[in-house]
UniProtKB/TrEMBL annotation, chains A, B:
Subunit structure: Homodimer.
UniProt-recorded name of the protein: DNA-binding transcriptional regulator, MocR family, contains an aminotransferase domain
Domain Aminotransferase class I/classII large, first and last residues per copy: 47-394
Record family assignment: Belongs to the class-I pyridoxal-phosphate-dependent aminotransferase family.
A GO biological-process term: alpha-amino acid metabolic process
Names of the cofactor(s): pyridoxal 5'-phosphate
Entries under Pfam families matching the protein: Aminotran_1_2
PANTHER family listed in its UniProt record: AMINOTRANSFERASE (PTHR42790), KYNURENINE_ALPHA-AMINOADIPATE AMINOTRANSFERASE, MITOCHONDRIAL (PTHR42790:SF19)
One GO MF term attached to the UniProt entry: DNA binding
InterPro entries in UniProt: Aminotransferase_I/II_large, Class-I_PLP-dep_aminotransf, PyrdxlP-dep_Trfase, PyrdxlP-dep_Trfase_major, PyrdxlP-dep_Trfase_small
Protein's UniProt keywords contain Phosphoprotein: no
Length: 400, 400
């Protein structure tokens, strides 16, 4: 007799992307497939000093069980960090520390989603959000986006039609879309939250990774302009893309009633996030190293993004369509099929692997009605020369 | 309108223990209430060296995203650690690293439990297991225990009657009971697993904390004696009680099909456990410091346990009944009500707080039919003088 697994597992398939990733071991392959930052840019010295300080100043607290809500000095440092990004009246007790922002998504699902509940996400959106919410039985609804983020008129129609438990958005440098919600649309989203009494989840792992001008303020930072909106707003932040994913330090800001329930769920999920990682992150933030780290990371990613954009234009011409990214880690592109060239992301990905370059086809990022012509290219982990070579190989894959 | 929380939250109440813990801030209180190790015994130097080595030898891997299954050098070190404790044919791929063993419990729930499923636990058992499984909709059934652990005849009756999704046991130095399942009963439990095709979860955070002779081998170590039993056995381990809870490093051994599904669930729970903490733990284990650490911790806890046992006998006499613990962190006791003395753990806990000493009443540790005369006393975090003074205060509380 097989083990009697829970029915919720039937909601989730093994990811198509995971299958693709198995091919990445091929020697000499240039990968644009990852969703992670470049480990060569980690501030290893700063993190080492922070870890040493944590074990020197507060070894008991850094190694002992801690409060489920998070290590208090880190909550304070994160509140200050958020305050510096324009969030008004940001107190430490308005956030809890999560084991990466992936755990914030899990706690949102556990706290809010009953089997059969409707949840609106962007089409396309973060793959692990789709799977995470489906494990709680969510029935996902896809809201269309354009270069200015989610189309708010269509979003309102979907809210009215489906009465969702929540709306999940990555408003700034979306994954995979790279799109950024315009200021006007941000205000409108907050108004929709109040008007339709609908929970809005703002996932914001990329907002600090801008290349030129800063993006519009986060929904959280704007919420004081729309009375009542903060009561419906959940904001997820993370140190993974800007400092180091390996710390697994994220956070969630939410209304008090929701935060209390998410804390209870977290108590039975992992008790608390590693206090050693939390104390290290707290020391790092207090040491004041983050502004210089962010400046360095932005400059490097900006150059790589520009290199990739120019190379794609030069090598693939009218076969591909994309908006040059203003931040984040990704170019989101669409095969045009011009002059009979390949127009299917999956077919192109296979041909690209044969040429020694990898990316992720876009279809799996849609919870419904996938656009099979799309693809996601990360410029984060390859150097500029590698990017030029990789895109040249894409050109060969197109011709082949 | 309030936020529309998920129905699963209705299954769980705010813990009575949490309310009690709020009283622990009272100045001068001696606490036997905790469930944690003594932070004064953490091997801070060893952990500092391990963290430094992790950031020196493999900074990219220690700070980057990692495999959901766990950091490979840690999986190897843990497999070796388990092999050293008598587990045969223990390969790294038979375990995944979890964010503390609390996450293993959560993944077991997510992977196996459908709403309404029966789950058998010991009465009494670990409180966070009760709550964790209830969040997945489990209908808990309480199996009685005695000083030799769960009563296996009664357990078999309950398995036949309820056809549970799983049976959850803490066979060695149980929390809160301190009881250790006898060797004979261990074999019988493994036979029941095969005979009734029932998943057995062995939670083993305390097995290394023995004071005299080593306890019987774990169910996992014994499983090779009972053909087929390993196919039904899940084993949860943790570094929290023997090294440091703040690393949040636990692990789960399970049959391949179950491990694959738990890994998928973990991917959407927190992606992976902190690679920084994992790399630190791996360096620590490889440095060979664990045997000395265990020897030191065992000696200190053994002395404290003996002190508490003698003091309880001297101060409370026939008002209290308990089996002197042979390992773990707890004395589990029962008020006898002799000579009309207080026989209710809750009442006694309140009186004790008034006298400046705290413990946890036992009733909340039962999923059904609580024994209100029981209480749990931790000897782990107070020194021997404090233990004597605290137990003297218990004597005053009894007299008062």
């Amino acid at each position: 007799m097989p083990m009697p697994f829970a029915r919720r597992l039937d909601q989730v398939e093994t990811s198509a992307i995971r299958e693709l990733f198995k091919l990445l071991g091929k020697p000499g392959i240039i990968s644009f497939a990852g969703g992670f930052p470049d480990s060569a840019m980690f501030d290893v010295d700063g993190i080492r000093q922070a870890a040493e300080a944590a074990l020197r100043d507060e070894p008991g607290a850094a190694l002992q069980y801690g409060a489920t809500e998070g290590y208090q000095p880190l909550r304070e440092a994160l509140a200050q960090f958020m305050g510096g990004k324009g969030v008004q009246d940001m107190a430490p007790q308005q956030l809890i520390v999560t084991t990466g922002s992936q755990q914030a998504l899990d706690l949102i699902g556990k706290t809010l989603i009953d089997p059969g509940d409707k949840v609106i996400v962007e089409g396309p959106t973060f793959l692990a959000t789709i799977q995470c919410f489906r494990l709680y039985g969510a029935d996902l609804v896809s809201a269309p986006i354009d270069a200015d983020g989610v189309q708010v008129d269509r979003l309102e129609q979907l809210i009215v039609e489906h009465r969702p438990k929540l709306v999940y958005l990555i408003p700034t440098f979306g994954n995979p879309s790279g799109a950024t919600l315009s200021l006007e649309r941000r205000r409108r989203v907050l108004e929709l939250a109040v008007q339709h009494q609908t929970v809005i989840v703002e996932d914001d792992p990329y907002g600090d990774l801008y290349f030129g001008d800063a993006p519009p303020p986060s929904l959280l930072a704007l919420s004081h302009e729309v009375p009542g909106s903060r009561d419906w707003l959940v904001h997820c932040g993370s140190l993974s893309k800007v400092l180091a994913p390996g710390l697994r330090v994220g956070w969630m800001v939410a209304p008090p009633e929701m935060l209390a329930r998410a804390t209870m769920c977290k108590q039975f999920s992992d008790a608390h996030t590693s206090t050693f990682a939390q104390a290290t992150a707290a020391q790092y933030l207090r040491a004041g190293r983050m502004p210089a780290t962010l400046a360095r990371v932005r400059a490097v990613y900006a150059e790589r993004a520009q290199t990739m954009g120019e190379a794609l234009r030069a090598e693939l011409g009218d076969a591909i369509d994309f908006v040059p990214p203003q931040g984040g880690l990704f170019v989101w592109a669409r095969l045009t099929g011009a002059r009979g060239q390949v127009a299917d992301g999956n077919v192109f990905a296979q041909r690209a692997i044969d040429q020694g370059v990898a990316f992720v086809p876009g279809a799996p990022f849609y919870c419904a009605n996938p656009d099979h012509a799309t693809l996601r290219l990360s410029f984060a982990t390859a150097g500029v020369e590698q990017i030029r070579e990789g895109v040249a190989r894409l050109g060969q894959a197109l011709a082949g």
